Amino acid sequence: MLALSGLTAGYHGGTALHGLDLDVPAGTVHAVVGHNGAGKSTLVHAVAGLVVPASGTVRVAGTDVTGRAAHRIARAGVGLVPQGRRVFAGLTVAEHLKVSHRPHRSPGAGSSAWTPDRVLGLLPGLAARTAHRGGQLSGGEQQMLALARALLGSPRVLLLDEPTEGLAPLVVQQIRELIATLAAEGIAVLLVSPSPALATDCADAVTVLTSGRVTAHMTGNTARAHPEKLREALSLATP
Amino acid sequence: MGVLDAQLVPAVDGVAYGLLLFVVASGLSLAFGTAGVLNLAHGTLYAIGAYTGAELSDGTWGGLALGLAAGTSAACAAGALLSLATAPLSRRGHLAQALLTFGLALMGGNLLVELFGADELPVRIPEALDASVSLLGHRYPAYRLVFIAMAVLLAGAGTWVLTRTRAGAAVRAAADDPQMLATTGTDPRAVHTGVLAAAGALAGAAGVLGAPIVGPGPGTAESVLMLSLVVVVLGGLRSLWGTLLAAVAVGEVQTLGVSLVPDWAPYLLFAAMAAVLTVRARRSALPEPGGGAGTARAGTAGAGTAGATATAIKAARAFTAAAAPVRRWRRPARTGGRYAGRARGAGGATGRARGAGPFIALCCLLAAVPWVFDAYSITLAGYALSLGLVAVGAGIMTGYAGLPTLGQTAPFAVGAYTTALLAQAGWTVGPVQLAVSCGAAALFSAVTGPAVIRARGTTVLMITLAIGELAGTAIGEMKSVTGGTDGIGGFPPAQPLWGAGALEGESAVYGYVVVVTAAVLAVTLVVLRSPAGKLLTGTRTAEERMRASGHPVGRYLLLAHIGAGTLAGVGGSLMINVQQYVSPADVGFEIAALALLAAVIGGATSVVGAVLGAGLIVFTRDWLSASWPGHGPLLLGALFVIAVYALPRGLAGIRFPTRRDGPRGTPATTPGNGSPDTPPSAAPSAPCSDSSSPSSPGSSSSDPSSDSSSDESPARKAPS
Q1: Which of A41, B161, B336, B586 could covalently link to B340 via disulfide, CB atoms 3.0 to 4.6 Å apart?
Q2: Residue B330 falls inside a structural domain
Q3: Distance from the A27 Cα atom to the nearest Cα atom in chain B, whole angstroms
Q4: B714 vs A contacts (CB less than 8 Å)
Q5: Least reliable range by pLDDT among B352-356, B458-462, B705-709
Q6: How many Å apart are CA B471 and CA A3, to the nearest integer?
Q7: Which of B305, B310, B717 sits opposite A49 (nearest CB)?
Q8: Which residue of chain B is at minimal alpha-carbon distance from A152?
Q9: CB proximity list for B530: less than 8 A, separation 6 or greater
Q10: Which residue range or ranges hold the ABC transporter domain (chain A) (predicted)?
Q11: In chain A, what residues touch B713 (CB-CB under 8 Å)?
Q12: A214/chain B closest Cα distance in angstroms
């Protein structure tokens, strides 16, 4: 569903990501782990169109979207839950849903479009707070709101940038379950996190990124069966 | 009851006037609050509507409808064009965009005069409305009552769109975080264009409907812009209700105020504006008070959320970003010489010698002028130098202290009128004139400084604008001292020294001006190169850290303000020697904008650049336009536009186009550095990391907004 080949990107003329190849089939969760500065967010931004890749291609459901503007990539079926949530502080939850809902978007085959009602059904915590502004929500609620915002575009590919950062264990558990639910809906999930725990818990494949390059790759089952392998890859990855 | 009764008509007039201003100002507020464009061409959009409406008005309903459709569409299209024009500057901060719109306003005003003539156009309203109705025993024009109803309708519709519809929510989301809006599939640029087009349509509609109240003429654009700015400032950007209240208050001041207290009315507006801004700036612990922060939470008063705070800081930083890139492009001797940590064996001495080069070159250039040019050009050069001193002051405020100012004409006026009055009284010794003028300007700046230095960002522009306008109004009103709008002239020329002969002839005056300017600039350069300049730079780039380090930041800024004012005072005194005449037109808003532009053209932190910028401006406005009469504003506007696009870092930035680019960009993206994982817009708002020095070039990487100069900025999306 999401296919990256030779993806190179960076900021200010420098390069943070060197020729990354990655394939995330529909209905699977692919975790990219790495330390701060490994290029994880650059990866997410390059896919979402917030950074223009220097070279390489980004394909969504077979369509080459490389270099398109962020809103076009979003319309091609890429949803982003950014690091730090970045909800619209001045908009109410209801307005978030209104702004991000794209009723005319057709999701991938085999899944139905996301509507505000369906999203609120999935995230009941938000339903009670529809009249509150984004800035008034707790961190967990903001994370749910960011997820809701991404889902309302009926994405085929969902990018999650450190979705559990700074959240309470209970909320982290909720998010794990949500990720599994969304993958079961047929969404290709690209999860980026510094934490190997989250990756091993819910990923079908795990990639370790070091200084913008892939230094290890394993299936989710391997990572679950041999968590030490992932740890080792990560500690080797210490810059 | 009698008084109330007598004032009923002006009071209702005030409501009509206020609602007119409300419709115009809400467009201005929308454009600034949600699209981030301080649109100084907004008055011109009104004028477009007013001229179109007046031209098509023929006393029939059809004429009014046609005028409304045509005027609104024309202004709407002009607004959309403004959006396209400002889009490439969106990463350059508000100052660049404001200067661009000012240039476009100058050009547009000139074109309007060309199309419709320099006279005020008469407006014919439909006959059915051209009657008067009885209002509590008074006859009152029916049209105004209808206008009140129309304005209320427009306001209601606008509020509804902004607060209840998806488009309105998208507009507010774009103001909050355009990148995140893009990731939901909405093009933030389209929203930006839509907002400016809608703001233009509002101004155009107001122009057509309001033409019978504020008719189309050459001065319309500026007066409407000024009044709308006052309304936006008084009302704040957060709530349409605030804007409405402020608009009606301004309308009442302009009608009821004139009727009740005619002597005080001219001062009321700008005094109220200055007072409100000062109080608001004092109340707020933030760098930028929410009211001027560019967070239009329209219709949601009291949205003091964390996000609003973050946006406020972002807006304030984005604003000074206009000056920030410049800092990196300055000669390395000043910014980097001592602190950059690079191998720089020769240290300060070499830097100082190298830095003096442009100044010496400037002096040589100035000395050559009398041998090359004719008398008129020499006079212009002298005038350019006096304006250059004002520009240097504006540059110190903008580039060093981070307080972009439109009020340097006030100390300039103080200096000019002081010298003029001294000369009139027989005190013709140059140094005495200079000393007294300097003192007066410094005193003035010391008194007004506290109001200026508490604010940050756009609010500074507004406060200084208010101070400048107040000073201008005071000069116009105190006819017995200043000669009012007629100005003062006919005083004896100055003597360069005690006992010396009077300055006769252009070359002698010019020589005097050059010597004084060179001396003043030399002192300025020495002061700016001393630790004082570094302290100011530190204050601008990392104010909280400076405060935390125990620096009395307020005192530094006040001293900078006084210094800038003193420079303007010298400029004013010299201008008198050059022109032998002064009138309020010499110290008006346009001159303030010119001084700011000169500083920006020069490179904001470059003293020599500011003087050259002033020279370029005077050359364009007075010398070039002499060969194409009647098109001075057009040429000047073109200069604004060209300067903003072609000289993003000013004249001072031309010299090192590529050398400084590499070392700055690379460290920020070195793998493992941590910053690539952080999108600039999500970076912490407080400058952190680099602790070597606030004035080192490297510290700019901790300021999210200062990344704006990079063409490869992450938010710059693919060619769309």
Answers
A1: B336
A2: no
A3: 21
A4: 11, 45, 50-51
A5: B705-709
A6: 65
A7: B717
A8: B184
A9: none
A10: 2-236
A11: 11-12
A12: 13
Separation in Å, CA of B673 to nearest CA in chain A: 6
ipTM of the complex: 0.93
- Which positions 8-27 of A are in contact with B (Cβ < 8 Å)? 10-16
CB-CB contact of B472 with B588 (8 Å): yes
Q: Among B282, B315, B348, identify where a domain stops.
A: B315
User: B267 and B404 share a domain?
Assistant: no
- Contact with chain B for residue A99, Cβ under 8 A: yes
Same domain, B308 and B370: no
Same domain as B362, residue B305 = no
B514 within a domain of the structure (yes/no): yes
Query: Would the CB atoms of B182 and A71 count as touching at under 8 Å?
Result: yes
> What domain range is B622 assigned to?
358-653
Query: Which residue from B578, B589, B560, B450 is spatially nearest to B512, judged by alpha carbons?
Result: B578
**What is the pairing mode between strands A17-24 and A55-60?**
unpaired
Do B306 and B366 lie in one domain? The reply is no
Q: Which domains does chain A have, with CATH numbers?
A: 2-236 (3.40.50.300)
Domain total of chain B: 2
| B138 SS3 class | strand
CB contact under 8 A, A102 and B172: no
Give yes or no: residues B294 and B429 share one domain.
no
Q: A40: which chain B residues are within 8 Å (Cβ-Cβ)? A: 677
B297: confidence class by pLDDT, cuts 50, 70, 90? very low
Is the domain of B364 the same as that of B303?
Answer: no
Mark which of B629, B653, B677 sits at the end of a domain: B653
Angle at A159 between CA A155 and CA A161, to 5 degrees: 150
* pLDDT recorded at residue A120: 92
On chain B, the residues whose CB falls within 8 A of the CB of A14 are 665-666, 668-670, 676
**Residue B388 covered by a domain:** yes
Stretch A222-230: mean pLDDT: 87
8 Å CB contact of B187 and A80? no
The first and second tokens of residue A58, run together, are 């980004």
- The CATH number of whichever domain residue B527 belongs to comes to 1.10.3470
**pLDDT (0 to 100) of residue A107:** 55
Q: Name which of A12, A16, A69 is nearest B187 (Cβ-Cβ).
A: A69
A203/B contact by beta carbon, under 8 A: no
Q: State mean pLDDT over A91-112.
A: 78
User: Does some domain include residue B4?
Assistant: no
**Separation of alpha carbons B189 and A6, rounded Å:** 30
Query: How does DSSP assign B467-501, residue by residue?
Result: HHHHHHHHHHH-HHHH-GGG-EE-PPPPBSSTTPP
Query: For residue range B23-82, what is the model confidence (pLDDT) as tens digits?
Result: 999 998 888 888 878 888 999 999 999 999 999 988 888 999 999 999 999 999 999 999
pLDDT digits (tens, 9 = 90+) for A148-169: 999 998 899 999 999 988 889 9
Is A86 within 8 Å of chain B by CB? yes
Residue with tokens 């002239």, as numbered in its chain: B489
pLDDT at B286: 33
